[in-house]
């Protein structure tokens, strides 16, 4: 069961959206089979809704340098790193089709919580190099290891490195936005227990002192 904080977003959806935005949202929601509360809340400021939609439309999902499995790993790993339950739920929904198994999802979860974890041993050297790179992108403050940068550039080339960086940044963008609006997971991966979505709440209740 999800924490009580997931029962309602921090803001209501606007009563009405301009008709082009309504048509666009309904089309995307039909395709996904879910109501996109975060996108609808962005309707309070349509420029944010349009801009985030354009960003999502052009993200990479399968490239020669960064195949689908790796990009799925990056999205799931970053989602765990930033504790975004909605993002974990959504980005894990097609993990089997991407070539991942539940033990590998558990390994990504463990590795995201502890960069020194031995869980990363289930992945290839190339995959571990990519995960170390995107872990740095997600860190605060951002800090990179020179050897990892050189290795990633050698393994993936300039184009592949940009794909990895932009993919990690895109998940960070959506995670911060969704968390700041208090949007609950949409139930994309009900059958996958290893995600432990209930552990990724971000709302803290102030308690009176003394």
Q: Would you mind describing this structure in some detail?
A:
By secondary structure, the protein is mostly helical. The protein has two domains: 17-58, no CATH class; 61-196, AhpD-like (Up-down Bundle), CATH 1.20.1290. It contains eight helices and no strands. It has helices at 19-32, 37-41, 46-57, 68-81, 85-91, 102-113, 125-138, 146-181. Helix 4 (68-81) runs parallel beside helix 7 and helix 4 (68-81) crosses helix 8 (146-181).
Give the overall shape, derived from the CA principal axes: globular
- The ordered H/E elements are HHHHHHHH
**Rounded average pLDDT:** 89
**Number of spatially distinct domains:** 2
Strands, helices and their partners?
Elements: H1 19-32, H2 37-41, H3 46-57, H4 68-81, H5 85-91, H6 102-113, H7 125-138, H8 146-181
Helix pairs in contact: 4-5, 4-6, 4-7, 4-8, 7-8
């Amino acid at each position: 069961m999800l924490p009580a904080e997931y029962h309602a977003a921090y803001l209501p959806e606007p009563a009405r959206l301009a008709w082009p935005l309504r048509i666009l949202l309904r089309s995307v929601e039909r395709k996904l089979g879910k109501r996109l509360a975060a996108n609808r809340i962005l309707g309070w400021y349509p420029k944010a809704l349009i801009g985030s939609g354009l960003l999502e439309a052009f993200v990479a999902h399968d490239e020669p340098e960064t195949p689908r499995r790796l990009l799925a790993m990056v999205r799931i790993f970053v989602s765990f790193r930033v504790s975004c339950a909605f993002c974990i739920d959504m980005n894990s929904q097609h993990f089997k089709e991407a070539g991942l198994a539940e033990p590998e999802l558990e390994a990504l979860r463990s590795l995201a919580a502890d960069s020194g974890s031995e869980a990363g041993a289930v992945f290839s050297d190339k995959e571990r190099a990519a995960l170390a790179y995107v872990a740095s992108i997600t860190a605060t403050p951002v800090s990179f290891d020179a050897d990892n940068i050189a290795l990633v550039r050698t393994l993936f080339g300039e184009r592949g490195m940009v794909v990895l960086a932009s993919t990690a940044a895109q998940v960070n963008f959506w995670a911060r936005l969704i968390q700041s609006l208090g949007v609950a997971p949409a139930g994309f991966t009900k059958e996958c227990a290893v995600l432990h979505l209930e552990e990724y709440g971000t709302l803290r209740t102030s308690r009176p002192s003394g």
